[in-house]
Amino acid sequence: MSHPVVDQLRQITSSRTIGDASELIKIIDQAKLKYLGSGSSRVVWSLGDGTVIKIALGPDETPQNKSEVEAFNCAGPEYLAEVFDHDSDQFWWLVMEEVKTRELNGIIKKWFPTPAGVHPMDDNFESMIWAPHVLHAKLEQNKKLTPEERKNIISWLDGFQRVISKCDISTKDMRTPNVGVRPSTGFPVVIDYANFDLLKWESVVPSLNSLLFESTYSQHPLLKKVRAAKTKEALMALTETPQFMRDFIGEGSTRGVYSLGADKVLKLEKLESDTQNKSEVEVFKCSGPEFFAEIYDYDKQNFWWLVMERTNTRTEAVEKKLTSYFGRDSKMRFIERLTYYLSENRLLDVLDAINTNQASTPTEKEEAKIWARHFASVINTCDINTMDLTDANVSVRPATNQIIFHDYADYDLAGASLSEIIFSP
After folding, report:
1. Using a CB cutoff of 8 Å and minimum separation of 24, what contacts does 83-87 make?
2. Fewer CB within 10 A of the end CB, N or C, for the chain?
3. For the chain (length 425 residues), average pLDDT per consecutive 10?
4. Pick the CATH number of 208-309 from 3.40.50.720, 2.40.128.280, 3.40.50.300, 3.30.200.20
5. Within 10 Å of residue 115's Cβ, how many Cβ atoms?
């Protein structure tokens, strides 16, 4: 498989050692390839022929390309997106099968129907990895599947388990945004397996945060009362009691926020028709906790309440972090510019704005670039409409000192394109 861009990249990486990806990215830019997304270590463009090109951003990131090549060589193309070509000298680039991710939720929902309001990925995708037999009973209960469909799905699940066991693949980065559906088969394939580990198999277990939540916060007096409320009227009546009034933090147009201690908050919806909690749950299930405050528990039937990570929303903490990333004059307006640039596939403009920030150190510049690249990847992968991305909804996570969003209720996973949202640059 030959492509003019790939031929140019190969000519560079096979002839001499390079120290960064700037020369490679310049070739990509000149070819006007369609930008697809990026993570903390690599950027991806479509080659327009059913394949993508992945470029490592620096020499420390090239092992991710090498890892994918090694995993694919062992496992083959049935469960992993196919690697067609790669830089065999320095691993700066690789060419991979292009697979769409948006169809995955529909496939999983067909296999394992879930109640209305419950995300189709709940408890199912990780089970495919470490305990496919757990899902056999669910498949048997799904009467909408034909016997042949059920047989094929079980065969796929069992085969996936055998392959990752045979290759000793640690699926520590196996998550929804890294999986798509191959059109020719209608079955899932992993499209980003750079962080897979061929050294040791590790079972997927519940997150430590979830375990701590169950042991510590599930018995919190406020949460116990909320869980016991059978009607919205009963729930709202609780907010007038002294206990809830004492732990009241603040409110917006549709929700009230209450303290559950030093690192958790409870969000309660005021009206029967409110959907902000449901919106936050859907965004979080796709995006994960890197850029959005973590959701630990929620009302799975009505979405009347949810329990979320408590973050540092103090203005001085937020402005200090943003200044280190984007400069003293931009403040929160950089968030708007960031969204505008990403809607125009102009990630390089974002990185240029970071590089020209006179108020940051080289270390802070690198940290900011990693943040921006990965944030771009997440909102692109999850198709998030960031219409409510404002200064009031940005905070800093105390444990990591990273910028995150603690209110993302007005984000939209309905398929709206970022290019439809107009921000002034």
Report:
1. 84/1, 84/51, 85/1, 85/6, 87/9, 87/10, 87/13, 87/14
2. N
3. 89 92 91 86 92 92 90 89 94 94 76 55 46 63 87 82 69 68 88 62 32 51 88 90 90 88 88 82 80 86 90 76 68 56 61 77 82 73 64 77 81 40 25
4. 3.30.200.20
5. 8
